[in-house]
Design goal:
Length: about 375
Amino acid sequence: MRDLGTLLFVVNVDWYLISHRIKIVEEAVNAGWNVYVACEDTGRSNEIENTGARFIHCPISRSGTNPLEELRLIRNLYKLYKEIKPDVVHHISLKPVIYGSFVAKRLKIKGVLNAVSGLGYVFTDKRTSWVQKVMLRLMEYSFNRKNVAFIFQNQDDYNELKELGVLTPDNIINFIKGSGVNLSKYSSGDFPSDKRIKILLPSRMLWDKGVAELREATQLLKDDYADRITFVLAGMVDDGNKASVQKEYLHEWEEEDYVTWIDHQKDMVSVFHNSHIVVLPSYREGMPKSLIEACATGRPIITTTAVGCKECVDEGVNGFLVPVKNGPKLAEAISKLVDDKELRLRMGIASRKKAEKEFDLQDVIHKHLKIYTNLSDN
């Protein structure tokens, strides 16, 4: 096998890489790259090592803003990059993109790929702070060099970084719609035969995912639909995220057969197949993996007009788009699908067709490997 060089992935935490990029890591190893993965080990590092990649425990706080801790992280990344000497480094999520690009420029790492899958908590919901200002200055410096490539999952994130003035004409811009989905594993399944219509929220329990708006919708629908529908919340409480919803809030919301929280599920294919409708009333995304998977499993979708979300739904074709932070409109869209079985079936078929056309994992892998090769050869 030809040795293509050393490729380093840097991401916040192991479970995120496993969920969104593990097949890319595996295929890079198979192609001939000497692959390292640096992230926090929450107990799943063996799943990464099973791909043939070498794992390095590297804690990266997703929400930390303590200046001394952030400087310590930059120093640790500097030592790591200097020791491994990667030909290409792939930064995933905002903090690795910003700090990693800074270190890569200082050490003159040959090729840098920055995956911008949403601009994160600091940039969500029109938040402004000194942290955001520091990040912008670091980006201005770090991105201003040759052989720095970007992957954007949607046009809006690209436009925002461009308007902020942190991108340069030398940067190589790529658009890839999400992390892809295995169309064989996430097959289109029949709707469950349950009398109750199951409405699934497949997401970490974060306020920015629209949890409060969905709760409002459940209250608005309760009188007319409590004996006809079940809301299923499938996702973990993410204590490492500032927008995390408390467990007490979720338990208080639960109500017999009407609302149930099933926490994180490893077998999400079965969870999707056991649902009739998928909802994600998020405030902002890169390209939500959960909606890509919902498309592949042939489920009608209700999501918002937010950045990233709207790319997963063709309005009125495979689902409905509702305004951000609007519980009543969300409830209205849910009622339309609950009341119309034929509409659910038609939209589910359209979702699968959209996944086959736009979200095939093999296409995503091919594009990534081509980018790595181009960065290494330049």
